[in-house]
Amino acid sequence: GNVGTSLLRTLSADATVEFVLGIARRLPGEAPPKCAYAAADVAVDPLVPLFRGADTVVHLAWAIQPSHDRDALRGTNVLGSERVFRTAVEAGARALVVASSIGVYSPRKGMEPTDESWPRDGVPTSWYARHKAEMERQLDRLEAERPELRIVRLRPALTFKRESASEQRRFFLGPFAPASLLEPGRLPVVPIPAGLTLQGVHAEDVAEAYRLAIVREDARGPYNVAAEPVLDARRLAAILGGRLVTVPVGLARVATALSWRAHVQPTSPDWLDLGLGVPVLDATRIRTELGWRER
Fold first, then answer.
1. Smallest Cα–Cα separation from 84: which of 131, 139, 9, 25?
2. pLDDT at 204
3. Which of 189, 211, 271, 295 has the least C-beta neighbours within 10 A?
4. Facing residues of 5 across strands?
5. Reported pTM
6. What is the bridge-based pairing of β-strands 200-202 and 158-160?
7. Cα dihedral sign for 214, 201, 34, 166?
8. The three-state (H, E, C) secondary structure of the chain, written as one string
9. Cα–Cα separations (whole angstroms), residue 58 to 54, 151, 179, 207
10. Distance CA 125, CA 70 (A)
11. What is the rounded (10 degree) CA torsion for 270, 202, 8, 173?
12. CB neighbours of 86 closer than 8 A, spacing ≥ 6?
């Protein structure tokens, strides 16, 4: 996926890393040097034989589609995560590095950047946020039970790279959304819900954060990962090269809900609630403790 492919390249270039096994439901193409692939589904397949002998287990598996099948999503995101965590312990891993998210945080109050101590109950109306919060509670219990296991949780902002653009467009806009419309200057007006503010970070920079979490023995606990600047409506419109049109939140939510229920597009309306609710991340901890910098 978006982060996993970048992480494999990053770890492959690290002289301290001996070998990486990448696990996915569908086998990708050729593996980078020092890497190999195995096919498995975290929700149903045996994982102990794949994890045995690993120093570190890195958990990136997460589903956001099919958005109309919440049982399937929970089976991968919550139950699948729990299987990964328990299997890592059973297989004798010394460290567990987990993909959490900005979505784990409770709704923001104002635009002041928040650190890793912000409450982690998610945006209540967002299934994605609830799944992330439930997964982190599993990690809380595991940390209490297994203090010898080094657990790191990375909480990135929205993560992008050019190679993942078509995949992300398909996940959130559907297979029929014309890519040409999203090229800068093609949209004369850019409709953005009132109050929407986003943070982004490049997948290669997120991969470096994971590399540091893996190879640094002093890395432990949660780390926010976000780049500057914060993207408000005016910046987003400028990036897309169109005139900003502010859309009332209620209207945007109704339009999203109706088109999602009609299967016109795959993004459920709670993603709008998530985008409007998550706080602005303060990434001071990972910068000062692990020396991470966005490039």
1. 139
2. 97
3. 295
4. none
5. 0.93
6. parallel
7. positive
8. CHHHHHHHHHHHCCCCCCCEEEEECCCCCCCCCCEEEEECCCCCCCCHHHHCCCCEEEECCCCCCCCCCHHHHHHHHHHHHHHHHHHHHHHCCCEEEEECCHHHCCCCCCCCCECCCCCCCCCCCCHHHHHHHHHHHHHHHHHHHCCCCEEEEEEECEEECHHHHHHHHHHHHCCCCCHHHHCCCCCCEEEEECCCCECEEEHHHHHHHHHHHHHCCCCCEEEEECCCCCECHHHHHHHHCCEEEEECHHHHHHHHHHHHHCCCCCCCCHHHHHHHHCCCECCHHHHHHHCCCCC
9. 10, 10, 32, 11
10. 13
11. 40
12. none
> Across 66-70, 152-156, 185-189, 235-239, which has the greatest mean pLDDT?
152-156
Q: What does the pLDDT look like over 219-238, one tens digit per residue?
A: 999 999 999 999 889 998 99
Window from 69-83, 174-188, 220-234 with minimum mean pLDDT: 174-188
Give the distance from CA 91 to its chain's centroid: 25
Average per-residue pLDDT for the chain: 92
Q: How far apart are CA 253 and CA 177, in angstroms?
A: 19
| Neighbour count for residue 293 (Cβ, 10 Å) | 11
